[in-house]
Amino acid sequence: GDERAGTLSPGRRMGEEMKSILRAEKECYICLRPYPVQLHHIFEGSRRRISDRLGLVVWLCPKCHDDIHREPELMRRLKQVAQRTYEKEHPRAEWMREVQKNYLED
Length: 106
What we know:
The chain is an alpha+beta fold. The protein is built from four helices and four strands, in the order E-E-E-H-E-H-H-H. The chain has helices spanning about 50-55, 60-70, 70-85, 90-100; strands at about 15, 15-20, 40, 55-60. Helix 2 (about 60-70) crosses helix 3. The chain is globular and about 35 Å long. The relative contact order is 0.17.
C-alpha cells in the first residue's frame, strides 16, 4: 500500500501518540476535561489512515466521545473544523485529494 512516508506532516507520531493539528493539549476537545481522555479519529474506518497521517485526531472524554458517535451534526461540525484548520496551512486541492469531500459551505 501507499504509506506516503514523505507526507507525515502536519500530523506526526510522537512515540505512539498522534499529534493533533486541532489542539495540542491532551484534554477533551469539546468540554476541556483533562482526564480521562480517548483519542478520536475524525475520519474512521477506511479513512482512519488519513486521520493518522494528517493529524486529524482529537482527544475526547468518554462522554463527549459517545456523544460524537451518536450525533451526526456534532461529527459534521468537527469535520468542518478539521478542514478549516488543515486549510490554514494547505490548499483546498490538497484536502480534496486526501479526503475527497468538502465539508465547508463556501
